[in-house]
């Protein structure tokens, strides 16, 4: 049996990749994918803990996270399209009107 | 079982009128406003009459408790009303004279703006005044006391667009507050020592106490503090300064509040507290001295005034001084008797003066009047009755009451009597001076169509109606109250001071108090009576002579030789200047109290505390918040990735912190 720490390490690596991509990348779609990566890193640790402790709640959380992620993807992609239509760019550094 | 008279309705009726006119009156026609005001005030008067009819069958004092108000341990105060001979007389005077003045005001104020406001205030005043009179404890009395002050303030400043009127209102209010402060401390002393403010319980606690002849004690302190309150409300030295300025109000207000009713509240309160004063001879002496000095002082100022209302104002102060003189020598019933007759003739004098002012189109300077006798005969004859009454000519009302006061004052000290008689001479002199200057000689005013000139203080604004030709008699609605009051001024004294005193004796000389009676008690021994009779007649003769002398002197100066007063004034020089300027008392107060107070308030309270501490705290904290925000706002760059960076950094810090907590 694979020890718990391996799953957690993989989850941590996935999450770190997500954070890194979020911070570095300028393309909004890449950023969006980085968010999904972070979510899946978290999901992996959830199911790993659930298997370890034989508790179902972790699995249930993952379902919720997936549902929310799907909804977020729908809304997020719609926003991206809307942004592209008005600004004709997907570079987030140029989408910066919301400031003082 | 005594019947329930529903005494509470007497004050509440005018309050309802005030509420209706005050809240809805703006939409009413003038007729409706006047109707409401007169109906509710008249209802109070009718009710007072009904109570008076029932009175003989009552067991006095008749107390009716309406509701519980304050209950704190042993201490309790109720909304309760107290009816005895004293409050009955006050009740009839206030509602009766008040109603007549309401009627008069309808005519006088008809052309003025704020008609509904005026009557709302007037009814409000009646409510508070009746509360003051009918209260069965000092606290409820104090409510009325403060309330009439409020109504007085509102009505003095009725023409609030004029700065002088607004200032006079404030002055009246502030000076009254000084007096109220003394009154309030007296109440606290009563609560502390007697545990109650109910008249019955306080007087029952006071009665067993001995007379404080040797040294001043608690009762003297209470008495003096009550006198401070009375001096404020009733315009006695040193707090009289507000009353002459109060003439800025419309003339009916001067008649109602500043002559007939409110200013006598102090006399009523002192008389009501006679149990306390009788046991504090020092306080009594102070009351008598203040009254006597005020009477003389105000009368001398009155001699030199040229404004028709100011003369009457100083005359009011002077007559109130007589009342306090009476109270101070223990002749409370004489004081109340004078209060009643004074309400008739001084109310009438003011109303008649208002009628004169109305006739000459707002002019108040007597030097610009004259010869009005034939032009406004009704006003002339009614004012004549009042003038003779106040001057003390028999058989007019003022003669009986003033004579009684002087006679009783003589028993206390000849000094009171001497000053009193001299003041009576001055009173007669300045009243007839006014009478001659206004009604006799040649008309000295502008051309008779001088209605376009801006009206002076307290007078009706220039009349709007175009067809307003010259000097004219007032409308009937103003003349009827004048005539009724004139009849009262003539006949009001015929009841006789002895009968009046007998009626009031259950209040002032109840059986259990006779043991402490001094020389101020009514003379009972039959053998003394005849001897007293002759000397009383002598004194009466002297005071009538004083009145005649005053009449003769003013006739000589202001009718026969109208040029002479100016020469005399010129000869007197500095002294005349001093008196014309009211002995510079206002200036003295301004220097001693007002200016230091304003300077202190400006420098310390305004610049120091308000601007330096309160404003500065607020300004500096606001400035600090602004500075911090100015620095921090750069975090909000609008750059999405910088936000993400902050979130990641924050999350990292939290994770490290939690790991650190966990591994410690």
Could you give a short description of this structure?
The complex is a heterodimer of chains A (100) and B (664). Chain A has 3 helices and no strands. By secondary structure, chain A is mainly α.
Helices and strands in order, then pairings?
The complex is a heterodimer of chains A (100) and B (664).
Chain A: H1 4-24, H2 28-53, H3 57-87
Chain B: H1 9-24, H2 30-55, E1 62-72, E2 75-83, H3 85-108, H4 115-134, H5 138-156, H6 163-194, H7 199-206, H8 218-233, H9 242-245, H10 251-260, H11 265-272, H12 274-278, H13 281-304, H14 308-328, H15 332-359, H16 377-391, H17 397-412, H18 414-439, H19 476-491, H20 497-508, H21 526-560, H22 564-572, H23 574-580, H24 585-632, H25 640-663
Walk me through this protein's architecture:
Chain A is an all-alpha fold and 100 residues long. Chain A has helices at residues 4-24, 28-53, 57-87. The radius of gyration of chain A is 17 Å and the shape is elongated. By secondary structure, chain B is mainly α. In chain B, strands 1-2 form a two-stranded antiparallel sheet. In chain B, 48% of the residues are buried. Chain A binds chain B through residues 19, 22-23, 26, 31, 92-93, 95-100, and chain B through 633, 636-641, 644-645, 648.
From the structure above, extract its key features.
heterodimer, A: 100 residues, mainly alpha, elongated, B: 664 residues, two-stranded antiparallel sheet, 25 helices, 2 strands
Coarse shape of chain B: globular
Total count of strands of chain B: 2
Say what oligomer this is: heterodimer
The fraction of residues in strands of chain B falls at under 5%
The percentage helix of chain A is over 70%
CA-to-CA gap between the ends of chain B? Answer: 88 Å
Low-pLDDT runs of 5+ residues of chain B are: 448-467, 512-527
Largest sheet of chain B: 2 strands, antiparallel
Order of neighbouring strands in the sheet with most strands of chain B: 1-2
Written as H for each helix and E for each strand, in order along the chain, the element string of chain A is HHH
Through-space gap between termini of chain A: 55 Å
Q: Beta-sheet strand percentage of chain A?
A: under 5%
What is the 3D form of chain A?
A: elongated
